[in-house]
Write a structure and sequence with these properties.
It is a single chain. This protein has 121 residues and is an alpha+beta fold. Helix content is 25%, strand content 31%. The chain is elongated, with a radius of gyration of 27 Å.
Length: 121
């Protein structure tokens, strides 16, 4: 009976492998990067929660990969906050592969909103 112990141990170790086969299981391993999600091509209007307050962001694609952006609900003294809301929101909503939003024009405060142009970069 002592000679059966190694055989029993071998069977316990080998039996789980018997369930394996060479059929495709639907899982595919690839070293290629997944393609980036498409950039938002439609104008968007979103409420943005930032530093405990909700602001209103409007952005729309313009020429050559740039976006016209407006952040409403801030004062004329909140340029830095408006830039942060615009660039981080652009990254989240429109930039592929997590690229950052970058300003391409100086922000201007008019009619209660910060307006600027930005792109993914």
């Amino acid at each position: 009976m002592k000679s059966m112990a190694p055989l029993a141990i071998a069977l316990v170790l080998v039996l789980p492998l018997a369930g394996c086969n060479n059929e495709a299981s639907g899982v595919r391993i690839s070293t290629e990067k997944a393609s980036a999600p498409p950039v938002a091509l439609k104008p968007r209007s979103e409420p943005i929660f930032y530093n405990g307050k909700t602001y209103h962001l409007d952005f729309a694609p313009s020429a050559e990969g740039h976006f016209d952006m407006a952040v409403a609900g801030m004062t004329a003294k909140q340029e830095k906050d408006a830039v942060a809301v615009a660039t981080s929101s652009l990254r989240y909503f429109a930039c592929p592969d997590g690229k950052n939003g970058q300003l391409t024009s100086k922000p201007a405060y008019a009619a209660g909103a910060w307006k600027m142009k930005a792109r993914c970069g």
